[in-house]
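anyone else get weird line breaks when pasting these?? whatever heres mine. first is seq + tokens for prot A
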Amino acid sequence: MSIIAADQAESAEESRESKYQYEREAEGIFRHTGTRWLHERPTINGKRTWRTLETKNLKFAKETYRKRRSAEDRGENPYAEEQGSAADEEKKKAASLVGDALRRYAEDDCPDRNRKTRPPLMLGAEKANVQALLPFWADVDPDDITIALCDKYHDIAVKEVIRGEGDRTVDLRLNTMRNALRWACRCELMKHMPLPEGWPRYHIGSAVHH
């Protein structure tokens, strides 16, 4: 594959994973649909990436955005102060994201609640659900998971279900996410399960448990 083709493939992958994660709020400013924090999309070291604007308030975000652009105009690096501590901070945060839990679960072949290997058909379904969950949930902190956020995911996901019944499909995907989060707790990537009071279910009359 050529360098150009590889770059295009990488760009397409980033676009797909970010499809549901960010909504444009203003010129150069985007809101994460899960956490509601505001971000920008700068190019750092030749690669486009996301940087938090450290607020959920659009007015404050615009001020920070303007300060960073002004620093760049002066030939300064507006992220210099962040980069020193960012690496350590990212290491602390990395394992706490839902995406990390989902990927670890898939990499470990989706063990069941007894840490046993799943039958091939069920294993394939779990891994397919992981891929379906990642675009929306990858950058969400488990502590930010709420019933309202699950409702938002449901409203988006049911519109895209091609095969099967939408509500039932969402229930199965969220069950996979619970399995992944439980596995993350066992792997010490997380300390506790989100929504201890219970997760929403959308399929009427559904009483299937895995």
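and prot B, same format (seq, then tokens)
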Amino acid sequence: MRYEPALLELLTRDSAIVLAAVVLDLVLGDPRALPHPVVAIGRMISFLEPRLRRIFRNEQTAGCALLVTTVGISYVAAALLIRGAYALAPDAGIAVAVYFAWVSLAARSLHVESGKVAQALERGDLPGARLALSYIVGRETDQLDEAEIVRGAVETVAENTGDGVIAPLCYLMLGGPPLAIAYKAVNTLDSMVGYKNERYLHFGWASARFDDLANFIPARLTGLLMVLAAPICALSGGNAWRIMRRDCRNHSSPNSGFPEAAAAGALEVRLGGVNRYFGRLIEKPTIGDAARPLSLAAYGGVVRLMYCAEALLVAGWLALSFLRR
């Protein structure tokens, strides 16, 4: 109990922790040379899955147990590590808190990985652009033309602005680094077991639904932030609002349509349409109007939207924190 005042002192420094995390992410990106919580979470999921399947005969029950265990351990482990480090030295506690906050954000990594697609297109290297795109999307890319490659990159940046940037920032601001890490655990669960195939249809149901729930408000906030960011980025804010309201439901995800529709409206391009998965053509509803071509200018515009939306959220939160004080 003697360390409780120190812990409270740490919790009063949320603004500095959030700002440090955002700056580190923007400057350095993902710290791949250091131990990453998401890697540990992924290993924990792989370890727990076969054991929980053996313990629980019902697949949905086993999947619920996996969700609760993974998210709970992730939150508690982050909180204990921060508290333990702070007990050793206040500066150590702050450093650990900043690290967990930093690794929960992915704006720079999203820009770097999607930028490899744009760089290949700038060189006229269509096969290279297809290969780079295949690393960040689930669709087949080996037959895509330049416009379809750009569409894939724009859709990826728009969608992941929600769950890779704005959502973790929201949870970081609401509950500090432990809650941000718990959110990353939800994301990791969805990416590993949230599939509608024979193996995971029932086992991954809880993880997929909880991921939808965790992103429900952040996805809509992302869309609104993109609408506000559009005029700052020399894009169409009015059209972003119109298309988001009109086409936000034209997506298989209950959440991803909001940032994608806002981005499509701001850029005045059309997203969605036909994709190929495992040799099958899947026609999805379109999002937006094709007033402008899908070119590298559209990709540059969606990257600006991502960074500006993040900046608006941080600025708004700092302003609210100042007013509360």
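btw re prot B: Residues 92 and 156 are 36 Å apart (CA to CA). DSSP finds 13 helices and two strands in the chain.
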